[in-house]
Amino acid sequence: MESPTSSNSSGHFSLFRNGPQNGEYIKSNKNISLSYPEGSNTFQQGQLGDNDTFLAGTLHLNYSKSCQVKSVYLHLKGVEKTSWQRSQARQKSVFTGEHTLVDQTNKIWEAFDDSEEVTLLDIPFKVQLPYNLPDTITTEIGSVKYVLRVTVNTKALLGSQQSVKLYCPLRRTITLDAQHLPPFKLSGQTPSGIDYIFLLPPNKIFNVSSYVSIPMKLRFLNPNIGVERVEVYLRTSMDFQSSTQGETKHVDQKIIGMIVSRSELLYAQPTSSSHYGECTHTLNLYIPKNVQPTHQGRFISIGHFISINFFLWGFESDYRVEESIRINHVIEKYPPQNSPNSQIQQAQQIQQIQ
């Protein structure tokens, strides 16, 4: 039966639903289950950030005999949390930090009268989330987690509340107009006399679970210098705070890396007297699905960097350059057509850079 505070509910009950499996519930109840909206594998609708974002789905009640139900509530709690240990001599200290990001309760159904008899009932719901919630984050030391709890209030002498609880991962997505934004030009000159240019994605944003192509050009300003290889890798820098003043923990992790040997570089003759030749290459890096997104919170800070190491011959010292980047879930506003000429176009693009 529908109430003024609920979405349209019905008595239809389906045995085949797309929703969390039994093992995904932190706390389960045989009479209560949830399903995602049709065609989705998440309760989240929207991109977080400054956009309107909702939790949507359907709550299913299934009782073997009629139950007097008074009301149903949906509660979402999101927490940023850190915890680590430090051993010194025979003592072990534990440092923790915790910050509540959202603590929101919504009534999604209530009886017209004091209670209603329910055997099978589906209750669609759609509730708005606060703006600028961060992604779900999972590391060994800190996390951002969201827990969804459903509470069914019943009219009974014993056990007047029934509930289920489960994790509700959220993903923040950035919409990028890559076709109309120029690539970020990472350029400079080594002390030994190599001009370098690397074209990073617009705004230096790397997309999770996708390939990133980075055209590069090296120009030799001295006659007796060359490149043995170029090593490129991405690293994550994580800083964790605790509620104890001054107690922090820092973790560096290498995400991915690749080596470009001298034989892989495409060499060209000098086009002017100002240099002694140049070479080009296109780096293709895959950003793994399990990489944590860039995050700046109260107790957790996650940053990412691209590190480029030049190993030279003709000089004793090598050279390293590093640039901060962002790793996020990205949707392109105007997705490019899949074309085998895309890398050729990138190579042409870097050839035109002076």
Distance from first to last alpha carbon: 71 Å
Based on CA atoms alone, the radius of gyration comes out at 27 Å
Overall 3D form? elongated
Structural class: mainly beta
Model regions low in confidence, pLDDT < 50 over at least 5 residues: 1-14
Mean pLDDT: 86
Which fold does the CATH topology of the largest domain refer to?
Immunoglobulin-like
CATH class of the largest domain: Mainly Beta
Overall tally of domains: 2
CATH architecture heading of the largest domain = Sandwich
Give the number of helices: 1
The protein's oligomeric status is single chain
Q: Biggest β-sheet: count, sense, barrel?
A: 9 strands, antiparallel
What is the string of SSEs from the N terminus onward? EEEEEEEEEEEEEEEEEEEEEH
Number of strands: 21
Note down, in words, how this protein is organized.
This protein is an all-beta fold and 354 residues long. It has 2 domains: 22-171, Sandwich (Immunoglobulin-like), CATH 2.60.40.640; 174-351, Immunoglobulin-like. Helix content is 3%, strand content 57%. The protein has one helix at residues 342-351; strands at 25-27, 32-35, 44-45, 54-88, 91-110, 116-128, 137-138, 142-154, 161-167, 173-176, 184-189, 194-200, 205-207, 210-220, 226-241, 248-261, 266-268, 278-287, 295-296, 300-313, 319-332. The strands form 3 sheets. Strands 1, 2, 3, 4, 5, 6, 7, 8 and 9 form a 9-stranded antiparallel β-sheet that branches. Strands 10, 13, 15, 16, 19, 20 and 21 form a 7-stranded mixed β-sheet that branches. A 5-stranded antiparallel β-sheet has the order 11-12-14-18-17, with helices on one face. Strand 8 (142-154) and strand 9 form a beta hairpin. The longest helix has 10 residues, at 342-351.
